[in-house]
Design brief:
The complex is a heterodimer.
Chain A (H helix, E strand, L loop, with lengths): L1 E14 L2 E7 L11 E5 L7 E9 L2 E7 L3 H7 L6 E8 L13 E5 L4 H12 L5 E6 L8 H7 L2 E6 L6 E2 L2 H4 L8 E4 L2 H8 L6 E4 L15 E4 L2 E4 L6 E3 L8
Parallel strand pairs in A: 7-8, 7-11, 8-9, 9-10, 11-12
Antiparallel strand pairs in A: 1-2, 1-6, 2-5, 3-4, 3-6, 4-5, 12-15, 13-14
Chain B lengths: L5 E3 L2 E3 L3 E3 L8 H4 L28 E4 L2 E4 L8 H13 L6 E5 L4 H12 L4 E7 L16 H12 L6 E4 L7 H10 L4 E4 L3 E4 L1 E2 L4 E2 L5 E5 L4 H12 L6 E4 L5 H9 L4 E4 L2 H4 L3 H15 L13
Parallel strand pairs in B: 3-15, 6-7, 7-8, 8-9, 9-14, 14-15
Antiparallel strand pairs in B: 1-2, 4-5, 5-13, 10-13, 11-12
Classes of the chains: A alpha/beta, B alpha/beta.
Chain lengths: ~240, ~300
Amino acid sequence: MKQEIFTIQSNKKIAKDVYELILAGNTDEITTPGQFVNIALDGFFLRRPISVCDYESGKLTLIYKVVGRGTEKLALMSEGETLDILTGLGNGYNTAKSGESPVLIGGGVGVPPMFNLAKKLIAEGKKVTAILGFNTKDEVFYEDEFRASGAETIIVTADGSYGKKGFVTDALPEVDYSFFYTCGPEPMFRALSKVVKTEGQYSFEERMGCGFGACMGCSCKTLTGNKRICKEGPVMESGEIIWKD
Amino acid sequence: MERLKVNLCGIELDNPVIPASGTFGFGYEFAELYDINILGTFSFKGTTKDARFGNPTPRIAECTSGMINAVGLQNPGVDKVISGELPKLKAVFNKKVMANVSGFSVDDYAYTCEKLDKEEQVGWLEVNVSCPNVHGGGMSFGTNPESAAEVTKAVKAVTKKPVIIKLSPNVTDIVSIAKACEEAGADGISLINTLLGMRIDLRTKRPIIANKMGGFSGPAIFPVALRMVYQVTSNVKIPVIGMGGVSTAEDVLEMMMAGACAVEIGAANLTDPCACRKIIEDLPAAMDRYGIRSLDDLKGAV
């Protein structure tokens, strides 16, 4: 973890209520896909935890959805403005577990962390399939970016307005995969957990106080003991999760 | 720096800045960012006789200039704190630490304090009779003078270390409770714990916090905390640690003018992990600005 000041390079709307924020600053603390950053916003007491979509030396890409007054404020910020960010938080995905042909399953704003993960896995020579699920056509983003990365990309929408109609679980049976990585809403996770054929890694979210393990605000029970979503997580192994229903 | 030194129940502190229990873990997350030996001391995560997972999530809600938490005293239990956390802490912190203790019965408090009394690293016992997030314990001991005095006596009987009783603001007459603790032998008082608060999610029409209510902290509560510190220091002779919404060097000075001999910093650590370092660095210039030569001169200036 490090506290860094980042400068906004661009902050543009890429789908309904969804923004892509490109920042210049020190990204050295980010070491694996699936980690997150925690952003301070003037006038708001708590920081906003946002997953890392992509990073390289000196450049950080985040994708966020406007869901409340904090993210509404973030969406109004523009090029040249600065943000106080805690960077390199949490434990990300482990690409060493992927096998030869991993599947990446993203739902809504769970799609962004899949992007850098796809790039990393492809760079390691893996055959990557990405299943990206959205509610409707207006909410679809990053399809071209995923295709350009070299991932076999399948888009599904719940209402059938774009791509294949249905949920990510409807697209999964067509894919032959060695391991799965996923990020998205918990109902999607519960549905997935009933149909996946291999081990995998899930990335969870929770309301956080600090985002770096001090307040115990985001604890959960797992088969391998109590964990903090922000510190030992957000990524958890499929074999350690206790499903709530 | 000599002018920042204060005395807390017979132990000298390099400065009055103390991260508050529950906002600083057992120190090592913060030690990644700065040398925590610059602190006066810190109060470690509230420890109970047995391990506790705490409350269901969500445990956190944001407020204007503050936050609500309902963690519910998640901790590994006193035995694991002693065998696991204290040795790890020793690697990054060479000062005496303040042990924060909670319980669900008078015997619980005495049991946990007796164990921590034997630990060399522990300088003070801060006895939390004010946690708003647990049922059948915590705050219920701190909301009337008799039970607060009973806990104080039981703890004093098992330790030679200074005993500081941490009080709840969720009472009608905090002075009577502070006085009862003083008469029962407390070496110091710390206040305030969080104010009981609540938020509702307009979308779901349900409380944001799974436990419905939680403890409200942050800059928004500072004036309430300052008022209560002033009321208590005006009525007891034992040292008082002031806390509640402190987030700047000026807040520290204000708390000390109200009579506090040291100051705990809570929620500020969560939003800015380097908050305490910045406050310590800012203190000398803030003192210069208001013509304060040493913090010792300040106590009870009002």
